[in-house]
Amino acid sequence: MNRTLIGVAIASALLLTTGCSQEQSTQVNTPQVAVEAVEVAETDISAQSALEQEARVQLKTLLSMMDQARAKNIDVAREETIVWFSEQFLKFANWDEANPKAIEMAFGYERYYAADKVELAAELPDFERQKVIDILTKGIDVLGQELRGEIKRRPVNKVDWQGTKASDNMFISNGKPIFPYDYFSKTVGQPLTNTDIYNDHLGALYHGGENLYPVDHDRAINSFLLKEDGTFDQDLMKELTDIPDTNVGFLYFWIMGIPEWVEKQEPEVRKGRSLFTGFDIDNPLVRDVWGKIIRETGELTKGKKVTELGFVLANEPHWFAEKGHWTANFEEMTSISSYTVNNFRSWLDNKYAGNLNALNKNWGTSFTSFDKVEIEIPIDPELLGQPIWYDWSRYNMDRSTNWFTFMQNELHSVNADAATHIKVMPRMFMYDSRSGGIDTEALAELTTMVGHDAKAFGSENIRPGKSSEWIEKYAYSWGLVAMFHDFMESVAPDKININSESHFLSSGQWRDLDTRTSYVRSVYWLATLLGMDANMGWFWARDPDGSPEDRLEGELDFFDPGLGGAYAGSNNMQPHVTNEVTQVMYDLNSFSEEIIELREQKRPLRLFYSETTAINTEDYMTKGSKLYEELFFEGFPLGFVTKNIIEKQDNSSWEAVIVYNNPNVTDAEFAALQSYLNAGGTVIVDAKSLLLNEYSQKRAAKLKAGKGKLITLEASADLAKIKKIALAEVADQMPDVAITEDNGEAFKATTWRTVKQSDGSYLVNILNFGRNTAKLNLTLRNGKSATITDLMTSNTLSSTFELESEGVLLLEVKPQ
């Protein structure tokens, strides 16, 4: 698809004439205005390519229509963005055309494109020009509809980049909720005041040191700020202190490198390093160095706008410690320090309450004391499910949580109000492996904001042997976004949720040169609906003249080879994608209050999650996601519970808990479920769950109903049976608005959310993840008729209507 559609798009474009644009423009403008626009274009751009000429004509048409709209007090912020991106990408296309070798190199660094790099580089400029024509054509069409009174759009609610403030669980701009947006790693080397980079179109969050894989002395809060004599490098510190206190933004603690003077004092300091953490987090000198850096930078930035979106404590942390893992290529956890070993021994002593015999029985060892315990790291994955695997995996999680607790405590010791989050990779929760040392729940509980870099796949995986099973049913991998966000929002419902590197547009595993704008709209809408408060997309790497930013020019040799190939096929080559990101964020921010209402609903049905089973089994999330998918399309939000959620949150915020595929739970987890039942809760448990403890030893105790309701499923119960029983338990919590779907398939692919308004009407959001257009029928459960209004266009819909694949609707439903 990537290799062929670019050629098809260009070939189609060459068939276009300026007459097409003139014909479209006469729908609103007088013929005279349209002719004048063409004549001006012809005199100004005679030396330009046919496609650029076409785009320039379209630009003049749209600009003329915008003048008409302003005269009628119609908001044209959306069109201003279309114009800006059109101008930018026409410039970019000319740069790409003038520098074919540079573009060939860019394609060559991504192995998926490398074989066709010459052809792709030659086609790219006209591909970009054609996509500019496409967004202009659509812009002319939509604005024309509004000028003719066929639709009425809500004016854009822009982000106040100077005055946006963080509240408890959302950002506020001009008295309303707001969803800030930007791009990760804005072109390095450009000043933070450059409006070609920081503006409403690309986003204008100040980036205080979020650089991609920087070398030692880059502009980040890093280990090199502190010198051996205990003083700070003031030249490096200026990169932080010279940030203008104008726009809101965020700061990174970049913990990848370590100075040579530290390594000389502590030869073990790089043992136990990981891909993006370049040192041993258990090392006392490291903690001394970083404690000083955190306190100093926390003091210097106290109250600054650049920290309004918080401090990111780490970039994609993980410590995979199993043999054969891909991270070993980057020397991740290929050995551990004496500090880590000794801390593990102390952890074991505490875990086993000093009972060495119990440890030796579990491990099949004969250690004479806890001080003599040894373990081979990286650990053999053949040990998965055995006590030694559990103990190490659980400790690896606890030690990383301890490191981030240390970082946050140091920051809060000098700046108690500093917001924090961690760029947690969703794979740490969504994938089956648990050897990476990240407890997603614990870190979401720890930090003041929830942080991550959630991704989706807009098309099939480009890496050989990687699964794209979802494509058999859906237009894109919505589940990666939905399940992760529902878990994080269940753990931390009252915290701001920040995606500091959203891989919705491309990643190392997928990209598509002709990405669908419908996908872009749907995935950003879904993530925001389910909790995302701010996002920084991957990634913006164009300098204002169109060239790739400095680090992506010339011969590339990055520590992480993924960066070199990231430019090819990214949104930096796709005007339609980059424009659509801003357009959907404009719409989300224009309806921010409605989105928040839809988001902040009771989650009546909860899925029990146990890190204990996840550590001990090889398919926990694979199985769990199947049940989640089965329940997702019923019109209400799903949630999760854990031991901590049961113990710390109001249990009345859900009606029932499903315990599915949880054979291994600790006694504390079991006790939490029993306490929920004792208090009157409802638990649905399958025949295989709760039978074993963390060491796969049989549990004698059985759940008892107490004051609650206990439903024990027979061993033969499949997902359909579990779903039927679960829905019966929350029948009185089902939404008042019901939607039936005919999408030509035997499964559902359309989801909806409903909120009743104070005037008796309903706010309804509908998303179609299916590959086909869905025929939908909307009814009220009480049988009353209703009028339905599309809030995006102000047009009326009948009760039966169609929603295209990846379509998004926001409706007002008024009972009659």
Automatic annotation (TrEMBL):
PROSITE patterns from the UniProt entry: PROKAR_LIPOPROTEIN (PS51257)
Q: Which residues form a coiled coil?
A: none
GO MF annotation terms? hydrolase activity
Signal peptide positions (record) = 1-23
Please give the SUPFAM superfamilies that the UniProt record associates with this protein: (Trans)glycosidases
Tell me the keywords, alphabetical order: Hydrolase, Signal
Kindly provide the name given to this protein in its UniProt entry.
Answer: Glycoside hydrolase family 42
Originating organism? Colwellia echini
InterPro entries from the entry? Class_I_gatase-like (IPR029062), GH (IPR017853)
